[in-house]
Write a structure and sequence with these properties.
By secondary structure, this protein is of the alpha+beta class. The chain folds into 3 domains: 106 residues, Alpha-Beta Plaits (2-Layer Sandwich); 140 residues, Pseudouridine synthase; 59 residues, Roll (Archaeosine Trna-guanine Transglycosylase, Chain: A, domain 4), CATH 2.30.130.10. Helix content is 27%, strand content 31%. The protein contains 10 helices and 18 strands. The chain is globular. The two termini are 16 Å apart.
């Protein structure tokens, strides 16, 4: 087993609702005794689903996992809009309930929503970050301005919606509900997408539930685990952090090489591996399949040692070195 300072790995957390992404990290620190932990791609407190978490040296790889495309399942309420664009906020706009019911029962609103998605909310679009978000302006998160009742000017950002499939509208507990499965680029705010859809359809809408299903090559259910399950194991081990780390390492760490499978792999010889861990000059030959790759995984004995790029002479340009010994 790795010692405390060499606990490196990728854990796929199935996040529960009403906890921040940083709250997940805090609990994992308490659980494992490891301080160097980072998550890949923030989830809103009310959101659930896949939260990739990196430990130890693998935190250096967060930028690559964060940059991947995402897939979400969202359920949204029709007929009202909230200041947070989700169920946690205060209603700020609404439509007449009778008129909304008529639009739904006639089938008109289903058709309108589908048409708006196809014509305005698919492909490359501009999106303004919501006030209730962690985006920083002048070093301060937007949500802090929002809590103080301030509206701050924000610039729109270009994001991509690759696919968005809507369900039929149904009545659940006296609320008109629709759901969507959305595949999108990094930095997409699903709450904002739902709010935009509701306003364009003149029916208003806010997110009731949101679950992230995929992050790049990672998918919910690929050995993902909840905090509740981990803390139950903590009780089994009588709070022994060493045993807890061993359990996570042996049973729940996801292979980082698979998570980065978009990056081609080069398997090093022993001599090459020694050069890599010491950051020495190295030239890679005979790998035509990698010629067009911008980033490459360097492995030794199937263990990831570094992420590199190559110059025109096939000389290694080190991006991230993950080991100091073979």
């Amino acid at each position: 087993m790795q010692n405390n300072t060499e606990f490196n790995g990728l854990l796929l957390i199935d996040k529960h609702t009403d906890i921040t992404s940083f709250g997940v990290i805090s609990r994992l620190r308490s659980l494992t005794g490891i301080k160097k932990i980072g998550h890949c791609g923030t989830l809103d407190p009310f959101a659930t689903g896949l939260l990739p978490v990196l430990f130890g040296r693998y935190t250096k790889l967060a930028q690559y996992l964060e940059a991947t495309d995402k897939t979400y399942q969202v359920e949204f309420v029709l007929g009202a809009a909230t200041d947070t664009m989700d169920r946690t906020g205060q209603i700020i706009d609404f439509v007449d309930k009778t008129e909304l019911q008529q639009r739904i029962e006639s089938g008109e609103l289903d058709k309108t929503l589908t048409k708006i998605v196809a014509s305005n909310l698919i492909g490359e679009i501009k999106q303004v970050p919501p006030m209730y978000s962690a985006v920083k302006i002048a070093g301060k998160p937007l949500y802090k301005y929002a809590r103080d009742g301030q509206e701050i000017a924000r610039q729109g950002r270009t994001i991509k919606i690759y696919q968005a499939e809507l369900s039929k509208i149904t009545l659940q507990n006296e609320q008109w509900i629709c759901s969507a499965t959305i595949s999108c680029s990094k930095g997409t705010y699903i709450r904002t997408w739902i709010d935009d859809l509701g306003r364009k359809a003149k029916c208003f809408a806010y997110a009731k539930s949101l679950s992230r299903q995929k992050c790049g090559n990672l998918e919910l259910g690929q050995n993902s685990i909840t905090l509740a399950e981990l803390f139950r194991k903590k009780e089994e081990f009588a709070s022994d952090q060493s045993k807890m780390r061993n359990e996570i390492e042996q049973k729940y760490f996801y292979p980082i090489e698979d998570a980065l499978s978009d990056f081609p792999q080069y398997h090093l010889s022993g001599t090459e591996a020694e050069k890599v861990v010491h950051g020495q000059n190295l030239k890679l030959n005979n790998f035509s399949e990698l010629d067009s790759a911008s980033l490459i995984q360097l492995l030794y004995n199937n263990k990831l040692l570094a992420i590199v790029s190559l110059n025109k002479s096939n000389q290694v340009q080190y991006q991230k070195v993950l080991a100091d010994k073979v």
